Please model this.
Amino acid sequence: MVEDSEEIDQVFHALSNRTRRGMLRRLSRQECTVGELAAPAEMSLAAASKHVQVLERAGLVNRRVRGRQHICSLSPKPLKEASEWLSFYEEFWNTSLDRLEAVLVADLEAEKGDNA
Amino acid sequence: MVEDSEEIDQVFHALSNRTRRGMLRRLSRQECTVGELAAPAEMSLAAASKHVQVLERAGLVNRRVRGRQHICSLSPKPLKEASEWLSFYEEFWNTSLDRLEAVLVADLEAEKGDNA
DNA sequence: ATTTCTCTCAACCTTTCGGTTGACAATCTG
DNA sequence: CAGATTGTCAACCGAAAGGTTGAGAGAAAT
Model:
């Protein structure tokens, strides 16, 4: 099973922000400098820099410094781990969805019965 | 593609906390009351109740009230959506991992060259 | 050498998070 | 009925998130 610890906390937290998800999407196409990642986001460079740091701490981004620019690249391994964590629940959204929905429908029916 | 909006913000945010992930795991085995979900977590009932609310707002948990107890059940659909969001990056952790590692190794080699 | 460009850092601010306590509503139990 | 159980809500607290600005380090361009 996937380890359920602080590491995955940071990954899910990093993914819980739209700006950061956008950065990852961008990095999936090509390596980018911090400035390039900041451009589409309507915020200061300093704010974008912080977002990059969050991604970096979560292990989702590597950085290498070339001259004055910091070049970021996608580091997808933690995404794989997050995906593996989620895969535990695959059986539930595949099979139990029907069962759960059946329960909910039954409840609604029961309520209707109560009201009548 | 999976919609990249506030909805998924809430799902990833809900998943970014260990206590809440534990609750989901528990709910994957059986339905639980709020009190049952609170028991293993070392915190007040009120705190656990808040966690359940976060899970509920993210669409991960349904609740039905029976008498004084609130019975929670897993609602796995948002997990499926999160998984689908992640699956976009599958190609990167499958194939590009090698390429990215090659780049990093090349960088390290270059640094060694600089130092010598 | 000076200026410009890229980026980080520190300080600060406001909002949210995660927890507590106390009060209360509602429900079972005796 | 009185009393215990189950859970929420509101108020509060400290810490963390997410943003700003201003200063400055470091590399590049002129």
